[in-house]
């Protein structure tokens, strides 16, 4: 039988006894009132004792009692005991988490909803110069680099921001923010000093080798032109050899020029001038038609807006020329390449569409890598350095723009350059 049922039966029997005695003595109401008051006083006493025990935290052994109150004390005591076990287990997990994050080689800082520091590991204290007393301080007040503050306010944490360590400018950090929970963010900082050093060495090596190759290539090209002028055409083998040597020298020259251009894009300071894009596109199309007479009927230029953008004209010329050149090169000679300059909601877009061989879906993410060329079966061999789209990608990055590629094998490709509206200058 349940405890509350026993309590109910006991009270019921008590009132039955009162009814019997009251009926025999004629004092039913006074006896019933006395029993009711007794029960009420007892319950008030138990409530008071329970409140005192709970107010003390319920840590001590619960007081001895009987009936339903004993069950109440027992259940509350068991809940408190289980809660204590869970809290102890959770505390161990938190300690293990803190120990593991303290051992991480990368800096980790937990930020609150208002950019305040909730917690930081040892690596964060070392590379950012944070102290234990900085808990609750806003991170922009302690790390005052403009790039970091803009990154923090932007809310766009897809890419990491590169900045020097506030305590040691020889250390380069790649800082990334990960959002989680309700308004919480985790700031992660990785030491990329050696990686950036190797990247600089690679750039310097490519730039130096490319620069040194220009002189011997120029000499070779000059002698080949002289030998071709002296060729009387009596030896087909000699004539063919000269032509092949001339073609390979020009290919090498284009490769060196593209490598030097990439190096300049990676190292040169950005310029801000207002570029007349419609006029630039008209000029690029005319140059393509001049270089290849067959291209005069193949280029369809549509200017739906007269918007100018801020940027570097020569860099934009290189990017747009590469896109147009690729479209003409990788599509049939009787097909039309459409160039469109237009404006949508938040972007200004240059679109180059061809009806050529297309790009396999698996290759699209990699076509902007250096020297990467899609393995597509072609009727004729198409020459190139494999650097054209890499140049396009770097130019667009320097202009806060993005390159979108939509392609289907056998049907053609569409390359669209999306410039942000903040670049409009006219």
TrEMBL record:
<dbReference type="InterPro" id="IPR035965">
    <property type="entry name" value="PAS-like_dom_sf"/>
</dbReference>
<protein>
    <recommendedName>
        <fullName>Phosphate regulon sensor protein PhoR</fullName>
        <ecNumber>2.7.13.3</ecNumber>
    </recommendedName>
</protein>
<dbReference type="InterPro" id="IPR003594">
    <property type="entry name" value="HATPase_dom"/>
</dbReference>
<keyword id="KW-0547">Nucleotide-binding</keyword>
<dbReference type="InterPro" id="IPR005467">
    <property type="entry name" value="His_kinase_dom"/>
</dbReference>
<dbReference type="InterPro" id="IPR014310">
    <property type="entry name" value="Sig_transdc_His_kinase_PhoR"/>
</dbReference>
<dbReference type="Pfam" id="PF00512">
    <property type="entry name" value="HisKA"/>
</dbReference>
<dbReference type="InterPro" id="IPR050351">
    <property type="entry name" value="BphY/WalK/GraS-like"/>
</dbReference>
<dbReference type="Pfam" id="PF02518">
    <property type="entry name" value="HATPase_c"/>
</dbReference>
<keyword id="KW-0813">Transport</keyword>
<keyword id="KW-0067">ATP-binding</keyword>
<dbReference type="InterPro" id="IPR003661">
    <property type="entry name" value="HisK_dim/P_dom"/>
</dbReference>
<dbReference type="Pfam" id="PF11808">
    <property type="entry name" value="PhoR"/>
</dbReference>
<keyword id="KW-0812">Transmembrane</keyword>
<keyword id="KW-1133">Transmembrane helix</keyword>
<comment type="function">
    <text>Member of the two-component regulatory system PhoR/PhoB involved in the phosphate regulon genes expression. PhoR may function as a membrane-associated protein kinase that phosphorylates PhoB in response to environmental signals.</text>
</comment>
<keyword id="KW-0597">Phosphoprotein</keyword>
<keyword id="KW-0592">Phosphate transport</keyword>
<feature type="domain" description="Histidine kinase">
    <location>
        <begin position="208"/>
        <end position="423"/>
    </location>
</feature>
<dbReference type="InterPro" id="IPR036097">
    <property type="entry name" value="HisK_dim/P_sf"/>
</dbReference>
<dbReference type="InterPro" id="IPR021766">
    <property type="entry name" value="PhoR_N"/>
</dbReference>
<keyword id="KW-0902">Two-component regulatory system</keyword>
<dbReference type="Pfam" id="PF13188">
    <property type="entry name" value="PAS_8"/>
</dbReference>
<feature type="transmembrane region" description="Helical">
    <location>
        <begin position="12"/>
        <end position="41"/>
    </location>
</feature>
<keyword id="KW-1003">Cell membrane</keyword>
<keyword id="KW-0418">Kinase</keyword>
<dbReference type="InterPro" id="IPR004358">
    <property type="entry name" value="Sig_transdc_His_kin-like_C"/>
</dbReference>
<keyword id="KW-0472">Membrane</keyword>
<dbReference type="GO" id="GO:0016301">
    <property type="term" value="F:kinase activity"/>
</dbReference>
<keyword id="KW-0808">Transferase</keyword>
<dbReference type="InterPro" id="IPR036890">
    <property type="entry name" value="HATPase_C_sf"/>
</dbReference>
<dbReference type="InterPro" id="IPR000014">
    <property type="entry name" value="PAS"/>
</dbReference>
